[in-house]
Write a structure and sequence with these properties.
This protein is α/β, with parallel strands linked by helices and 319 residues long. The chain has seven helices and nine strands. The strands form three sheets. The chain has a four-stranded mixed beta sheet.
Length: 319
């Protein structure tokens, strides 16, 4: 997998990093998007849920660009998939109203005198680069607002056992509230191209298996069969026979999820600074990054907070 990081294709680099679960971009990839508009104050920009989610790192495995284009005789909009034809292009007096971009590279895009009312941006990668609006990098503002909305989220970067324990307790309390407040008829419901609550919990089981059981505890085969892996994993050669083909019952998902949560709680209860500093292998393979035990725990925390934000937004829409 890590040979993809040496690719000259930025999208391939990003895909490799996201699938490997590092939640960081190579130094060569520095997404900087600038937006400038003299009437910005009359509209709104929604950045990763601050006013208004796309799939996070572990979900992405394909590259699609859906946007209004020339309509066919049936009125259907054109879909551009896996194309580079717009790199370096200039659009003047063009309309992208209502367009959708998914799994796409928009780093370095410059917009001037544009109408951005209702522009909705959702990217976990936002925190590894900059987003400049009218000369202001809004990334720190977004990060601070999400920390305000999700108390304890700032502890996903904690470096001490105490901080990680506190951060884990906070995110688990938040998840407990979300699961308890979701009515049965919404457990398997989902918005377009996103996961349901049940699928999200299954993915968090997989994340814990990968980074605690696989990364930290070095189990040869750490995955539970109910885990939800990212789309496209089979095309990348991952052994999909590990996972159950048919969706498990929700009660079983909750039971396995509780077991995995307790594993993290028990591990953190006795974790020491020395243990957190120990080096491990990347559970997704490759030789370029050797995370510490603390890094593995921080990835779990980032997964937990990111997916909590995604599912809360989706549930709000479904309600």
């Amino acid at each position: 997998m890590f040979e993809l990081l040496d690719s000259g294709d930025m999208r391939v680099q990003q895909r490799a990093v996201k699938i490997l679960g590092q939640w960081r971009l190579p130094e060569a990839v520095e997404p900087v998007t600038e937006v400038a508009h003299h009437g910005l104050h009359n509209g709104r920009i929604a950045a990763i849920g601050v006013l208004h989610r796309t799939q996070p790192a572990s979900r992405r495995a394909t590259h699609l660009v859906d946007r209004p284009g020339d309509c066919g005789d049936d009125g259907a909009m054109t879909t551009y998939s896996g194309t580079k034809e717009f790199e370096g292009a200039t659009f003047v007096q063009a309309s992208f109203k209502g367009a959708t971009l998914r799994f796409s590279d928009v780093s370095g895009v410059m917009m001037r005198s544009v109408d951005v009312d209702g522009l909705d941006i959702d990217s976990h990668d936002l925190f590894f680069g900059s987003l400049v609006v009218n000369g202001v990098d809004v990334v720190p503002l977004v990060d601070a607002e999400l920390n305000r909305r999700f108390p304890g989220r700032e502890l996903q970067k904690a470096q001490t056992p105490e901080g990680l324990r506190e951060g884990w307790a906070a995110v688990q309390s938040a998840w407990q509230t979300t699961v308890a407040d979701t009515p049965p008829d919404l457990v398997d419901a989902h918005v377009e191209d996103e996961w349901s609550l049940a699928q999200t919990l299954r993915h968090l089981i997989l994340a814990t298996d990968a980074w605690l059981r696989g990364g930290i505890l070095r189990m040869p085969q750490p995955f539970h069969e109910v885990g939800q892996i990212f789309t496209g994993a089979d095309e990348m050669g991952f052994d999909m026979s590990i996972f159950r083909a048919d969706p498990p019952a929700y009660d079983e998902v909750l039971a396995v999820r509780a077991e995995r949560q307790q594993m993290v709680t028990d591990f953190l209860a006795t974790a020491t600074p020395e243990l957190l500093a120990e080096e491990r292998e990347n559970p997704w393979g490759g030789d370029d990054w050797h995370p510490s035990v603390g890094d593995c725990i921080r990835v779990i925390l980032e997964e937990e907070w990111a997916h909590l934000r995604y599912i809360r937004r989706d549930l709000a829409r479904l309600r």
